[in-house]
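Inputs:
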Amino acid sequence: MAFIDLVQEKIVRIPLVSTDKAGVLRELVQILKDAGEIEDYDAVFTAIREREEKLSTGLENGIAVPHGKSAAVSRLKLALGIAPEGIDFASIDGQPSRLFFMLVAPPNQSGPHVEALAEIVKLVQSKAFCRALTGSKDAREVVELIRGE
Amino acid sequence: MSTPKKILVYVDGTEPSITAAQYAICLASFYRADLIALYVVNTKAMEDLLKARIFLQDELMEYEHDMEADAQRYLNYVNELALKKGVTIVPRSRRGSVHKEIVDLINEEEVDLLVIGELARIRSWRDEFYDETERAIRMAPCSVLIAKDEDKVWQMYESLV
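Outputs:
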């Protein structure tokens, strides 16, 4: 399944209410829980947190891509959070992160997981596009922007 | 019109790719064609993720290992599907960029039909935002068949004696 097919309003939150890194991770997992995409919150959160503890997935230009593998999901799941004000996510460039793409995949589906991550990397190469996402007024607009509608 | 002599099906473990494998097995049986199943461990994407610092080195190795295991598992699965219908399949696993490996194998093996699973229904307007399967379709030097309608393909596969 392509990344774009994972993007639905129910897994998008703008703005995120959290103000720190730990809160963002919890909130992103909760988005999946609230959307009915996962049942076992703790298992998914642990997978994401453990990966994040190795090295922050906060990249340059306000992008963060927390991800992990968990047997608690049967297929690739995405949660997308946007914090227009920026949150300290221990990013590579030391700048606040604004766009958070969280992916969690089952251990036996590494291929789709890798391809979705690669698609996100391509997607966020355009700074103008990232600015447009950050400036979206609601989840619907985020989905429309990503799908190019 | 000549019938296909050598068919290649690309398998990536997704449901559409398994449907494509079922269709390809039917075609290979009808036409008595050779059938190759290909899984590509997308090392190009993983290297890109390492460069982007999304992947750690040990994470990359872990994912590569997982994808090699996925390749074996899915190729074994389509092999079983073929054997049930008396069709012989040649499983091939390669590493690299998916579309490039597909095209290279088509050229090396002189494949005359590529069977591939249904593309994602929703596409973005962004040029760079098409997937590896779509690239393979664009670049394949042979005819390409996109298998659609999982239920109908399954019925066709099941009805194959």
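Remarks. Strands of chain B lie at 6-10, 34-41, 89-95, 113-117, 143-147. The radius of gyration of chain B is 16 Å.
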